[in-house]
Amino acid sequence: MKSGAMKGFASALIAALCLSGCAMQEKPKPGAIRINENPYPSTYQPYGSVPTLIRNATVLDGEGGRIDNGSVLLVNGKVEAVGGAEIAAPEGATVIDAGGHYVTPGVIDIHSHLGDYPSPGVQSLSDGNEATSPARPEVWAEHSVWPQDPGFSRAMANGGITSLQILPGSANLFGGRSVVLKNVPSRTVQGMKFPGAPYGLKMACGENPKRVYGERNQMPMTRMGNIAVDRQTWIKAQDYMRKIDKDPKTTRDLGLETLAGVLKGEILVQNHCYRADEMAIVLDMAKEFGYKVAAFHHAVEAYKIADLLRDADVCAAMWADWWGFKMEAYDAINENIALVHNAGACAIVHSDDENGIQRLNQEAAKVLGDARRMGLVIAPEVAWEWLSYNPAKALGIAARTGSLKPGKMADVVLWNGDPFSVYTRPERVWVDGALLYDAADPRRRPVSDFELGQPGEGDVK
Questions:
Q1: How far is CA 441 from CA 26, 121, 427, 436, in A?
Q2: Contacts for 256 with CB less than 8 Å, ≥ 6 apart
Q3: Which of 62, 108, 192, 339 has the most beta carbons within 10 angstroms of its beta carbon?
Q4: For residue 441, what are the contacts with CB-CB under 8 A and spacing of at least 6?
Q5: pLDDT score recorded for residue 453
Q6: CB atoms near residue 233 (< 10 Å)
Q7: What is the rounded end-to-end Cα distance, in angstroms, of the chain?
Q8: What pLDDT score does 9 carry?
Q9: What is the DSSP letter of 131?
Q10: Quick check: 3 pLDDT over 50?
Q11: CA distance readout (Å), 50 to 75, 81, 142, 167, 427
């Protein structure tokens, strides 16, 4: 074929391919605006794993079950089987004799600020509160998360944390979106994002918002002001939804998009709230505007309304014995978590602290001790629900993690003793079947770039 003919053929082929490709794409309607519903998608990919059989273990399955001399088989990043000594290892599998030690699902912390308030705790890294207006639903916690925070690896190595929710702070009534992360090393927050986990909306009651804005002589400066601003904001969200339905070309509003996601049931409300009376008011407000509270956080007076929480199917995320640091945290009792659990409500042990996240198993042990002293005996295998399955439920990920059931993510901890003992630490931790921590292998502990520091004068350049 001659040169001119070749050029003509190539031009015709390119034009045909372009027309074919354009024909396959949906043509946007005139004036329509394309909205990317997932602009910061998860890029998480599980680390490499090998088939692994853990045998001769005391297995707490996360949903109240216990197997003595049990076995857990992990294959292709999933829990393949849980049972007794009859479970056989596939060819080529790694076999671990647990020596009677405990195996549990990975711990899930529903309330963390790692990455947003990382270590070292200096002002330049303080990125959890956008305290410029009482309603800031447009901000997203993930846009402040610093993946190099050394707290992530410490949470795994000391506390067996395999997933966690990162929340904005509580200076605002509407603090912004939360994000659920897998506790894995990554260069970007997208590489840690739990794939498919719903977003949360951080809300706050009580002293924090009214103090922050009351000191600036602006609304809210009282508890009635808190609720008034909440209700006005939800009314705006309802109005925005009506406008969008009527005219899709309505100007976008990032904050109202988040609130609309809550009203549509796509985004879960995670509500900082201490006092029983305020939690009850919020439950009524949720009925008024047609949304659901997934969990009340801190909830030191949850024991007073445990029946209301049970009936509304709302979880309470609580501390074992952290109280008294302000008036709304004063009327606490150490039996709070046990009483909420005993009433049939969803009880969760949480941290809200970069050190507390490293010992949530010990916090649960305190609750068991306080419960026994009041005559309430709760089995350890049942209490583990507070650390894995219940937080997974409140985060909307319980179908995929939070318990050792076939088909779920292989997020697993092998402890070096009784996990309800202060002397016990994780021996090995798997996330999606990948062994990411081994106490006997220092190379398994991730070290962030920040911890590596700067090269000294004598170092090789």
A1: 53, 29, 10, 10
A2: 137, 236, 237, 240
A3: 108
A4: none
A5: 79
A6: 19
A7: 58
A8: 37
A9: T
A10: no
A11: 7, 15, 31, 33, 18
- Residue-range domain boundaries for the chain: 106-400
Structure tokens at 258: 């988040």
Each residue's pLDDT tens digit, 305-321: 999 999 999 999 999 99
pLDDT over threshold 90, residue 225: yes
CA atoms lying within 13 Å on the CB side of residue 216: 13
Whole-angstrom distance, CA of residue 148 vs CA of residue 154: 12
Phi, psi of 147 (to 5 degrees): -60, -20
Residue 309 to residue 271: CA distance in whole angstroms: 13
- Beta bridge pairs of residue 135: 174
For CA atoms 382, 384, 387, 393, the dihedral sign is negative
Exposure string for 82-104, b = 16+ CB within 10 A, e = fewer: beeeebeeeeebeebebeebbbb
Q: What are phi and psi of 335, to 5 degrees?
A: -90, 10
Residue 330 has pLDDT above 90, yes or no: yes
Residue 32 has pLDDT above 70, yes or no: no
**Side-chain half-sphere exposure of 109, counting CA atoms within 13 A:** 32
Structure confidence at residue 448 (pLDDT)? 83
> Hey, what CATH topology would domain 106-400 get?
TIM Barrel (3.20.20)
Environment class of 365 (CB within 10 Å of its CB; exposed 0-12, middle 13-18, buried 19+) = buried
Q: In the chain, pLDDT over 70 holds for what percent of residues?
A: 91
Distances (CA, A) of 371 to 336, 366, 375: 9, 9, 6
Residue in this structure with the two tokens 């970069």, named with its chain if needed:
354
Q: Which whole number is the average pLDDT over 15-40?
A: 55
Res. 5: pLDDT tops 50: no
Do 190 and 41 form a contact (C-beta atoms < 8 A)?
A: yes
Mean pLDDT of all residues belonging to the chain: 92
